[in-house]
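Re: [ENG-882] Designed sequences occasionally contain unexpected residues at chain ends

Forwarding the minimal case from QA. Structure tokens:
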């Protein structure tokens, strides 16, 4: 088996301290990549980290 780590929507929501529905909406909007099996979603750790980098705030001078 692969060493790839996957998160549930609830786990991502808990990590970011946002609502479950917020993460679900990011997935539906195409902002956060997820895999869907039946009605369950899984977010690859690498995809989650890439998502976080895209929204990183850069310091302005």
């Amino acid at each position: 088996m692969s060493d790839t780590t996957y998160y549930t929507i609830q786990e991502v929501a808990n990590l970011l301290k946002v609502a479950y529905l917020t993460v679900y909406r990011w997935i539906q909007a195409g902002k956060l990549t997820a895999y869907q099996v039946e009605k369950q979603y899984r977010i690859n750790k690498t995809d989650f980290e890439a998502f976080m980098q895209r929204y990183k705030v850069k310091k302005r001078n």
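QA comment: On inspection the terminal residues look reasonable. Residues 31 and 54 are 10 Å apart (CA to CA). Proposing we downgrade this to a documentation issue.
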